[in-house]
Amino acid sequence: MADAPLTPGPLGDGLSALLKHTTDRRKTMAGLLVGLAPGASSAASATPQAVALRPLIDAPTDAPMQLNGVIWDFVTGDYAAQGESDDLRRSARVPASRGAWVRRSDATIVSRRSDAHAVDTRLSDLSDAMPRRPEEFGAVGDGVHDDAPALQRALDAIATASAAAKGGGTRPGVLMLTQGRRYRCNSGIVLDRRLHNVTGQATLDFSGWSGVYVRVTGSLTEFGNAYGQNGCFEGQIVIVGSGGTAAGESVGILYDTPVKASATTIRTVGITVCRCDIAFRIGSRGYNQDFIACKAFECDVVFDWTAEGEDSDERTSVFGGTFFNSRLFLRHRRGAGGFYVFGCSIDYVAAVAEIDGGKAQFFGVHFESDHWSDRPFRIAGNGGAVMLHGGWILPIANKGGMTHLFEVAAGASARLRDVVTHNGQVLRTPDPATPTTWATGPGRFEMTGTEPAFEYGGFPVRQHDRSSVLADGGFDETDIQIDPVWRMADVNPIRSRDGRDAPGGGRAANNLMFARATTGQLAGSGCLRIDKTYGGGSPAMLVILAIPVRYGDKARGGFRARTVSDRAGRSRRMIVRGGFAILDGQDAAGVPIVRKFAPAGDLSIEPPTDRYVLVAPGNGASDFAAPSWATHYLIQIDLFHAHEASFLIDGRWADRF
Question: Measured between alpha carbons, how far is residue 601 from residues 102, 290, 538, 598, 616 in Å?
């Protein structure tokens, strides 16, 4: 076919034709810049048909020309002795002794601005800085064709251009995923956090196979270490895996590099990972990651910080994300690593954290689920710790047989500060005499400022089933006054704490007496036996526990009670009150003086004779907070209605938080 002659036309027409018939973006940019070069005119545009390498017969010599996406300049000089080549063509209008057409290199093309202060931009610099699209490298994005090789070719091209940046440094290049495309991938892709920025609005569909889907690796910066420019993985990008199971075979994003002194630190922003065994895994040199507004769902594990990786301590931070409908939010096994979560929602997972030596802190996080497994926070390992600062704990229902919220192993700790909770009553216990408890295990559990969301929003009865403010809650010591117990009301003047000052019967005896017993206890070696001498309607009241408080402290306590089977009386009604009081020293008999007592209400029970029952007064938000005037939290037992009955008290506890 004969070569088409050059037909000058408007710049816009030339560009439209050029964009339609070329795929090389550098040639496209070159065609655009012809019209922007000084002295260029609309005559510089050419037809899109390919022009063979031949003399530019009719071409003018006063302006650059574009032929088939290549820029030619007429350069004056003696070229008569030089033969024609791909880079030099003779003109039919001007003798070669006076000049020739010289192919312009990308490196010499510049974009000039009318502003005198603007710096000229070389085309090579400008085009390398432009985003690349997977379609340039053969991707289709229809959800059917395997686009993984094309995606990797694009990333490799960007890495080559980025590493070749002048000045000895690096400049992360950009891969722009085309909006709305679904790139099916039958193999993984690898990007370098130093060389790549990946962005766009698309889906990476790895549902057809299992493996590491996106590997973020790292290389040394121009400084010979991990410091310098970092790229990003950012946009409305969804990674779809082959199914979230416990097999651990499919990993959404792995941050891992074997290069010593480097890192995989990259901004991960707006990424959604679903249906993966592990959504985000922190491997070797994966420290100092920032996850911003990310999502994950239908995964087995959302974040997995492994113990096996090299040089992977320091921190990982998660900001404003939403993570739901997965089995486990965090598995953290890096002893010297701090995992920080800020303002996220962790909803409808089966478990929140499995910590083995690592540290995790949650700030203003919303925890909500209707199917938490038993002990959704599990902290183990020497130094393992979980800290909650603010936020909500909201167990909607208990479908997993949940008995405790936290399990804290030896050497580990869990701390809650100013957390709001609701529906704590959904916890289940093996029997009615066992109180619901926040935490179990030999480790340390602390609460400060935590309270129910609403007046009666539900709250676990105890903090920790193995610790209490009381030193001898079960009366196992021979001295029952290690934690003071005393009478507050009796038919006779109170001259002793225990009522044993007036032994005998008839009117000489006190109505209320108590002493340590070593039979019939719930557990341990002892319990407290309380005897009421007279019938119903006679005053008989004692304080079963008292702990000091300060303004704003939260406090709560309780015990287990049963009626002595051989002295049940005609009434075994017991009124229990918990509240705050002012204690003002002791009287001459050593009995504490109560100046003021403000109970939250009456709890009426009739303890059975065959078993212990749980007694825990108060469950409203206002029941817990100490007023400014209070010095102590007390629990009273009022036996005014009991008739010639005896009771056993064991398993006392008191919490201050």
Answer: 98, 50, 21, 9, 12
